[in-house]
Amino acid sequence: MIGKRRDGDGEKKKRKKRRRKGAHRAEEGEDEVQTRHERREREKRRRAKNDQEAKGRERDEEERVQTTSGKVAKTKKNIRNENTRRRVEEEEVEVEERLEKRKKKHGSAKKEEKKEDEGKQMVKEKEREVKKKKHKKVDSKDEEMRPECLTPEELEKLKEAVDERKKLIQSLRGKPWPMKKKLVTLRESQEFVEKYEGALGKGKGRKLYAYKVMMTKKWMKFQRDFENFKTACIPWEMKIKEIESHFGSSVASYFIFLRWMYGINMILFGLTFGLVMVPEALMGRPYGSMPRKTVPRSEETSAMDFAVLWDFGGYAQYSVLFYGFYNNQRAIGWLKFRMPLSYFLVGVGTVAYSYMVVIRTMARNANESGVGDDNSFNFSWKMFTSWDYLIGNPETADNKFASITTSFKEAILEEQESHKDDNIHLTRFLRVLANFLVLCCLAGSGYLIYFVVRRSQKFALDGLENHTWWERNEVNMVMSLLGMFCPMLFDVISTLENYHPRVALQWQLGRIFALFLGNLYTFIIALMDEINLKREEEKIVKFNITTWEASLYNGTISENSTAPSITINPADVPRGPCWETMVGQEFVRLIISDTMTTYITLLIGDFLRAVLVRFLNYCWCWDLEAGFPSYSEFDVSGNVLGLIFNQGMIWMGAFYAPCLPALNVLRLHVSMYLQCWAVMCCNVPQERVFKASGSNNFYMAMLLVILFLSTLPAIYTIVTIPPSFDCGPFSGKNRMFDVIHETLESDFPAWFSKVFSYASNPGLVLPFILLMVLAIYYLQSTSKSYRQANVELKKKLQTVI
Amino acid sequence: MGNKQTTFTDEQLEAFQDCTFFTRKEILRLHSRYRELAPHLVPLDYTNNPDIRVPLALIVTMPELKENPFRDRIVETFSEDGQGNLSFNDFVDMFSALCETSPRELKTIYAFKIYDFNRDNFICKDDLQQTLTLLTKGELTEDEVLLVCDKALEEADLDGDSKLSFSDFQNMISKAPDFLSNFHIRI
Question: Domain TMC, which positions (chain A) (predicted)?
Answer without folding.
Answer: 578-693
